[in-house]
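Task card 7
Instruction: Convert sequence to structure tokens.
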Amino acid sequence: MPMLDEEEYMRMLAFRGQDGNMRQRLELMLAEYERITSFAETNPHAVYHHRLSLYGPPCRACGKPLRTPQAKLCGSCMQPVEY
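Output:
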């Protein structure tokens, strides 16, 4: 799933404050997400979960992102995290 860095994420949030009805703003947000990532997301609320800073670095054992930046254990392979 394509993730957004902080600058890209803030560009998505900018559509919340624009004029127009909520549906139009969410459609604009999805169009911007697709422009940035080349991925056609269909759920506008899913974009809020595609923020890199919500997750930790990749697990050294399995390579999947840790579920939080403070994770002590990988949620995918259960390997303890060594910092």
